[in-house]
Every structure is written in C-alpha cells, then in structure tokens.
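[recover] target loaded
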C-alpha cells in the first residue's frame, strides 16, 4: 500500500472514532479479592467487564500483602467482589478505606459480598468476638466455600444480578453469559461427581478447615485438622493426638491447601501411614489452573492421586 496523506488522515480518523467508541462502551471495572472470584466475574461478565484480582491463587488468601498497586486498583473499581465471612478481614478493609472510592464501600451496590449468595457452614454458636480473641480465623462460619458447583452457581447468579444493576446496558450479555456458564457447570458437575464417586466415604484429615464444603459435596468424612483451630499453628501435643486418632480411624488421606508449608502435614501423614495431597484451592494456584473449571478438575485429580 502506498502511504499517502489521505491514508494517514483516514487512519487517524479511524483511530479517533475507535477511541471514542471505546469510551462510550467503557467496561465495568471489577476488582476481585481472589482469582476464583475474578474468574467467575469473567465468566458472567464476558466482554463487558475488565477484571483484576488483588491476590494470586498460590497465596494464602487470609494474609495478602497490602501494596499501593492494590489501593490504586480499588480506587478505579466500579465493583469489588470478595469472599466475605471474614476471610479477607486481615487485609482488605484497610485497603478499601484507603481507596477513597465511595462506589465500593460497604452498603453500596458496588460492594459485592459473594458469601451473601451461599448458605455458610460451620457457623459457630459462640459470639464472633470471643472466637476471634482465641485466634480462630473463622468466627462467622467457614469462608472456604467457592469450589463446590452449587456455590459457584449461586455466586455466578449474584454477580450477574449485581453487574446488571451497575451496568443496565449489559443486561442481555450478563443473562446470556450466566446461562452459558450454568449449562457448562451442570455438565461438568455430573462428570466431577462420577469421577469422585470412588472417594465417597474416605476418611480425611485436612491441614486448615478449608475443605469442609468439598468434603460434604463429595462425601468425604472429616476426622480432624492439623491446625488445632482455624489459623492456630499446629502444636506437638495436638499433632501426636491427631496421629493416634488417624491410626484408630483408618484415615488414609491428608489434604493441605498447596500454599501451606508441608512439613507438619508431611509428618502427620507419614506417621499415620496416610497419603498427603497438596491440593490447589484457587484459580492461579498453578499456571495451568486458569479458570474455575480447571480448578475443580485439578482438585478432583489431586484427591484421586492423579
Ligand atoms: Zn480459613
């Protein structure tokens, strides 16, 4: 092509128009606290949303390092999606406050607590302040709920509703993307359940109390935890008692989220003659786990020893 003045003018006009178009079609800026919620936001939001995650899937979501880049992302967000049930209490509230973004403060439409869509399990009947004082980091119930399909479906429906309220022009997109996601989820759910059927009734010990929803979904029986209480590091006496209990109960599987140090979990598993599984619990736990579907595939493969 011969570059003429006319070509340059035409190109410049095209770029200008494209730029204006992009501005008119500004995407909904969604910030998620963890990568699993970032992926569910993408699944439901399609090309109308621009999603970032504040933490990486290989990090412990209870403790994320506060960085200026996270405050900046929150400052620009139209919506904040978080796990809730106090999972992020140690790091997210100060960042939201520092963001000075009125749209994402508690009570605003852009503040999306994903736990409001699910039925929390392990809700203690002790006042939360009392439990928190004892070091229990699950004082409102168990926040590790995002893996079972039933909960992913509930969160996706909540996100579609809230995105539509924040971006009414996208209602048709959110509805269509949610329908596509739910169809894929229902198909995968059947596959996952039949793949995991041999695990039903398996007695397990987990490092942190982060596998209870998965255990109930797949019919695993939780016998104990390496942490004496959620968030309390293992002690020698608790570990010794746990190993005895595991031998008596025939526990053959120890599950630890892959971000936990494996030393104590390995010690417990070896002494009780059980298999240790360092299982991914979030999108991004490994580079291959790019979506919610990849995550559940990887969890079931890990539990089965694949
Ligand atoms: Zn936890």
């Amino acid at each position: 092509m011969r570059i003429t003045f006319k070509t340059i003018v035409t190109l410049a006009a095209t770029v200008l128009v494209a730029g204006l178009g992009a501005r008119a079609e500004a995407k909904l800026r969604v910030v998620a606290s963890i990568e699993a919620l970032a992926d569910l936001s993408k699944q439901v939001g399609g090309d109308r949303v621009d999603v970032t995650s504040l933490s990486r899937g290989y990090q412990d979501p209870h403790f994320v390092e506060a960085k200026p880049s996270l405050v900046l992302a929150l400052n620009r967000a139209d919506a904040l999606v978080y796990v809730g049930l106090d999972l992020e209490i140690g790091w997210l509230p100060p960042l939201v406050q520092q963001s000075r973004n009125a749209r994402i403060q508690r009570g605003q439409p852009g503040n999306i607590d994903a736990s409001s869509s699910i039925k929390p399990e392990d809700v203690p009947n002790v006042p939360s302040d009392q439990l928190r004082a004892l070091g229990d980091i699950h004082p409102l119930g168990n926040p590790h709920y995002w893996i079972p399909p039933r909960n992913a479906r509930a969160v996706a429906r909540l996100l579609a509703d809230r995105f539509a309220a924040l971006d009414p022009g996208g209602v048709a997109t959110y509805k269509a993307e949610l329908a596509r996601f739910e169809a894929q989820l229902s198909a995968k759910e059947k596959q996952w359940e039949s793949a995991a059927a041999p695990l039903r009734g398996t007695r397990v010990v987990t490092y942190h109390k982060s596998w209870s929803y998965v255990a109930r979904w797949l019919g695993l029986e939780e016998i104990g935890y390496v942490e004496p209480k959620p968030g309390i590091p293992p002690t020698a006496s608790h570990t010794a008692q746990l190993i005895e209990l595991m031998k008596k109960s025939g526990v053959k599987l120890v599950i630890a989220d892959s971000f936990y140090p494996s030393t104590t979990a390995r010690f417990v598993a070896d002494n009780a003659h059980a298999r240790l599984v360092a299982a991914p619990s979030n999108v991004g736990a490994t580079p291959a786990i790019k979506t919610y579907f990849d995550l559940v595939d990887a969890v079931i493969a890990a539990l089965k020893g694949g």
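[recover] notes: The first helix runs from residue 5 to 24.
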